[in-house]
């Protein structure tokens, strides 16, 4: 059935409740991230009884969309085509794919595997409140949940600890993760909390830990990234540089990738949007891994993006039940239409 046979009959909202495996603590800039919460999702229905739902990109006015032909709002080959409907990017992708009776990743092109490597993004600064044993317990808990790779928040010396003490703790946490899981991919995320020299001191302390990537060590300043590239070229196992999460200038990130200064682009799966990622991916001279922290549902979205657009070797997992299936370190996508998930209220 073509989308042109469907007219939007209603756009309503619901509350999507989610929870983490535990209370998530601080990072380099922010306080506790809590144990879960709720977000508003939009539910879009057509006159033929088809329904799609999902997180919005932003606030928007759904009123003018009621009565519109669905084919005027979204093109399966490109994404949302009417600017007034952009805030419904994910609900409309879900709706269109359900009508076409295909998973979203198939509608995006099916250019990647449907088993998507996924790291835990939930190892924060819980040691500041409960000691190093908290980090050990969190790693074990996430491993038992199904993760095999881990991203560690670093940068304790930016706000929460004296600079050198924070650096030593960052190194200690990294070495603990490597000791516990010698085969894991270890990613680290500084949330822009480092100076160049401070980061180099950290890299000296973890030189034998074989990091998978370094994420947002400092703002995307070209001279700093050039200095980092030169430093990484001296390492036996060169980590990737991942950037572009926080308030990105996308054109700047794309240019840094063309210059070989950014290896992985991180624009947020919601903040950038699925339609925007469909435009961006062909221009990207680097890998992609859309930032997905916040709501476990975003991990599902990132997995569909990876399986659909390709060029996304690993994605961020928000440790929490209900939104995605995790098996031995991989999100396993179903063949159900749309995003394959019924509304979780």
From TrEMBL:
- Cite the InterPro entries for this sequence: Enolase-like_C_sf (IPR036849), Enolase-like_N (IPR029017), Enolase_C-like (IPR029065), Mandel_Rmase/mucon_lact_enz_CS (IPR018110), Mandelate_racemase_C (IPR013342), RHMD-like (IPR046945)
Mandelate racemase/muconate lactonizing enzyme C-terminal domain sequence ranges: 132-235
Q: Which UniProt keywords apply?
A: Magnesium, Metal-binding
Instruction: Supply the Pfam families for this chain.
Output: MR_MLE_C
Q: Which Gene3D superfamilies match?
A: Enolase-like C-terminal domain (3.20.20.120), Enolase-like, N-terminal domain (3.30.390.10)
The cross-references to PROSITE patterns, in alphabetical order and at most eight, read: MR_MLE_2
Q: Any idea which GO molecular function terms this record carries?
A: hydro-lyase activity; magnesium ion binding
The entry's protein name is L-alanine-DL-glutamate epimerase-like enolase superfamily enzyme
Species of origin reads Kribbella kalugense
| Organism taxonomic ancestry | Bacteria, Bacillati, Actinomycetota, Actinomycetes, Propionibacteriales
């Amino acid at each position: 059935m073509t989308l042109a046979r469907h007219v939007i009959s209603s756009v309503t909202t619901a509350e999507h409740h989610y929870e983490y495996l535990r209370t998530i603590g601080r990072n380099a800039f922010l306080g506790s991230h809590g144990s879960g919460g709720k977000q508003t999702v939009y539910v879009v229905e057509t006159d033929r009884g088809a329904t799609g739902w999902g997180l919005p990109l932003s606030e928007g006015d759904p009123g003018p969309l009621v009565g519109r032909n669905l084919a005027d709002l979204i093109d399966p080959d490109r994404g949302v085509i009417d600017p007034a409907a952009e805030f419904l990017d994910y609900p409309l992708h879900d709706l269109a794919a359900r009508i076409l009776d295909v998973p979203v990743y198939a509608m995006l092109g099916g250019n990647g595997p449907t088993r998507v490597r996924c790291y835990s993004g939930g190892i924060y600064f819980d040691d500041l409140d409960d000691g190093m044993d908290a980090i050990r317990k969190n790693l074990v808990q996430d491993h038992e949940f199904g993760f095999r790779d881990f991203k560690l928040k670093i940068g304790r010396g930016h706000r929460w600890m004296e600079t050198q003490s924070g650096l030593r703790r960052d190194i200690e946490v990294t070495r603990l993760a490597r000791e516990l899981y010698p085969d894991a991919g270890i990613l680290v995320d500084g949330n822009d909390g480092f100076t160049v020299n401070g980061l180099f001191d950290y890299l000296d302390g973890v030189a034998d830990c074989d990091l998978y990537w370094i994420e947002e060590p400092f703002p995307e300043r070209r001279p700093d990234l050039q200095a980092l590239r030169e430093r990484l070229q001296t390492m036996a196992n060169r980590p990737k540089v991942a950037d572009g999460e926080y308030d990105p200038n996308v054109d700047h990130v794309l240019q840094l990738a063309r210059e070989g200064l950014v290896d992985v682009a991180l624009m947020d799966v919601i903040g950038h949007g699925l339609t925007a990622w469909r435009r961006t991916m062909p221009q990207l001279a680097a890998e992609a891994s859309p930032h997905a922290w916040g709501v476990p549902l975003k991990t599902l979205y990132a997995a569909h993006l990876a399986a659909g657009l390709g060029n996304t070797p690993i994605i961020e997992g928000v440790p929490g039940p209900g939104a995605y299936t995790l098996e031995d370190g991989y999100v396993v996508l179903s063949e159900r239409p749309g995003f394959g998930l019924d509304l979780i209220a």
